[in-house]
Amino acid sequence: MWDLYIVRHGIAVERGTPGIPDDERPLTDKGEKRMREVGDALAALDLPIDRIATSPLPRARRTAEILADRLKMAAGVEIAATLRAQSTARDIADWLALQPEAPLMIVGHNPALDELLSLLLLGDPTALPFEFKKGAVAALRRPSRPGERHALRWIAPPGLLRKLSD
Q1: Kind of pairing, strands 137-142 and 104-108?
Q2: pLDDT at 1
Q3: 81-125: pLDDT as tens digits
Q4: Neighbour count for residue 27 (Cβ, 10 Å)
Q5: What is the distance between the alpha carbons of residues 83 and 87, in angstroms, rounded to a whole number?
Q6: How many CA atoms lie within 13 A of 130 on its CB side?
Q7: Contact of 65 with 77, CB cutoff 8 Å
Q8: Helix (H, G, I), strand (E, B), or coil: what is residue 62?
């Protein structure tokens, strides 16, 4: 068994902002600051993360870069098209099944991440009435055998993580 960390991107420029297409929305200054604080909290927890894979969209990519910097990951981040905003939870779960057995952090978007958490824990993308806040993190223990479910280790909203970084 090994760990999977699921992160929703930080606060981004509002959808529908004139002159900024949805796929190009960056993090706001507040979003960048809060993700640095989340990253500091994760670093203090000394999580065993070998890789960070992210959606190619700017708001997720920048979130991943901030976390990689705060976690002092020399390898940086990997772009994974499967984590883009239009992917489904099943698309992401299928991609995860192909990943090497090493602690992995993924950064992506809702609603896919809400549904992914439900799918991995309960086998149904709509069974869990949960919504990841921007900047939230979930830690799961990945199963050692195919067909087994992931186990939830913890979920932390961004506000709690930011308090840990104080």
Answers
A1: unpaired
A2: 54
A3: 999 999 999 999 999 999 988 899 999 999 999 999 999 999 999
A4: 25
A5: 6
A6: 23
A7: yes
A8: helix
Helices (H), the chain: 29-44, 58-70, 89-97, 112-122, 158-164
Question: How far apart are the C-alpha atoms of 84 and 92, rounded to whole Å?
Answer: 9
Taking residues 62-70, what's their average pLDDT? 97
CB environment 62-82: b (16+ within 10 A), e (fewer) = bbbbbbbebbebeeebeebeb
d(CA 106, CA 140): 12
CATH of domain 2-164: 3.40.50.1240
- Per the CB < 8 A criterion, the answer to whether 24 and 58 are in contact is yes
The pLDDT value recorded for residue 5 is 98
Domain ranges of the chain: 2-164
Cβ-contact 165, 38 below 8 angstroms: yes
Residue pair 126/89 in contact by the 8 Å Cβ criterion: no
pLDDT digits (tens, 9 = 90+) for 9-42: 999 999 989 999 989 999 999 999 999 999 999 9
